[in-house]
Amino acid sequence: MRWQPDSPECAECGFDWAVARENAIDLVSRVPDAAAAAVARIQEPTQRIGGRWSASMYVWHLVDVLRIGTERLFTLIHDPGRGITCWDENALAEARRYGQLSPGVGLIILRSAAREWAEAASKAPAEATVRHPRFGNLGALEIIRRNAHEVHHHLMDISRYSDPGP
User: Fold this and answer.
1) 142 in Cβ contact with 73 (< 8 Å)
2) 102 lies in which domain range?
3) Tens digit of pLDDT for each residue in 100-123?
């Protein structure tokens, strides 16, 4: 599983899985500015390169990552017995038609999604756990780190569009 930590660092993006909770929250809080700067360097953010998503599609994916992350953190806080579900990023991208959505609007919404996520992450109790069907019991720190990794990783993906390379 790509988002399952299997080594101390992500081999692709260098994310440190031992990042402290506050540093992970700070990383996510800086995502809107970093994404806006990365998208500003791209001539056509809605254009796909190869089989990958476009930069704009990644922006919308970041929005959904943080929204779903917020839901998971609120479940951990308010109804941990309910558990959390798996989700399919490609099915969601297709259902929401990421390719047709405005990159500018995505960047605006990303700001509010990051703010809401950071607030939920700050309130999530360290001792609580919630059940995930694939990964078992997850605590706040695990959810926070997974979301921080995903946004860090996808900022790298967006940046590739300003320097597509090989």
Assistant:
1) no
2) 21-159
3) 999 999 999 999 999 999 999 999
